[in-house]
Write a structure and sequence with these properties.
two-stranded antiparallel sheet; alpha/beta; eight-stranded mixed beta sheet; Rossmann fold; 29% helix
Length: 235
């Protein structure tokens, strides 16, 4: 598969947008002691933040965070970093292989493979609450969260999309709960042709959607991030 001027070997599952990583009870025990708390960088460049209060005998909620176009792993992590310790969240933030996520550029494959690697390492070293695994993102990351989240609804229990532009699932599985927030004065991804179209489509398809329009531009206000975290941890 040609991607970013390079030939990358992809599994059939990755090309179909499917993630293979899964948390298994006690899986992290088989790989020795859990990695430490705090911030660390995984082998493929993804950032992993483990809250200071993490305890291996208390599985923690996990949120996979996706940056917007032109961003990086740090941008993704910073979307919800300020809430991680208080809410007890493990945050995983990969970086797209090009300026944005694979299906937005061409098709699923390289970024799905990268995310799968990062999830596998996380599941191997930390106890994850299987009922609270979310995929979240802002802007292009929000679009990708919806797309990959719907495709992998048998893994992700929740989807959080901040100011998404569209959704392009390769297939659909499961019925993850969905949170969407969008600024009414957004000029980058105007709400009228984005979330106001996306939300009714999701609801007609049978998904439960929490939708919040806020007075603001193409940004993520702290109060919206806080609301999304409270929704995720309570549902």
């Amino acid at each position: 598969m040609q991607y970013g001027g390079k030939t990358i070997r992809m599994s059939e599952a990755a090309i179909q947008g499917r993630l293979q990583a899964r948390p298994l009870p006690g899986q992290w025990v088989a790989h020795g002691s859990a990695w430490p708390t705090g911030l660390q960088t995984l082998e493929n460049g993804a950032l992993l933040y483990v809250p200071v209060g993490y305890q291996a005998d208390h599985p923690a909620p996990l949120i996979l965070l996706l940056h917007g176009a032109g961003g990086n792993a740090k941008n993704g992590l910073n979307l919800l970093r300020d809430f991680a310790d208080t809410a007890g969240l493990i945050l995983l933030a990969p970086r797209s292989r090009t300026h944005t996520w694979d299906v937005i550029v061409d098709q699923y494959g390289p970024d799905i493979a990268l995310i799968d690697e990062a999830l596998t390492q996380t599941f191997e070293h930390y106890a994850i609450a299987e009922a609270h695994i979310a995929i979240a993102g802002f802007s292009d990351g929000g679009s990708y969260a919806l797309s990959a989240g719907l495709t992998n609804g048998d893994l992700f229990t929740h989807i959080i999309a901040f100011s998404p532009g569209f959704m392009a699932p390769a297939s659909r599985s499961g019925l993850p709960q969905i949170y969407i927030a969008h600024g009414v004065t957004d000029t980058v991804l105007p709400i009228e042709r984005c979330s106001r179209r996306i939300v009714p489509q999701l609801m007609r398809a049978g998904y439960t959607v929490r939708y919040h329009e806020f007075d603001g531009p193409h940004t993520l206000p702290a109060k919206i991030a806080d609301e999304a975290i409270n929704w995720f941890t309570a549902s």
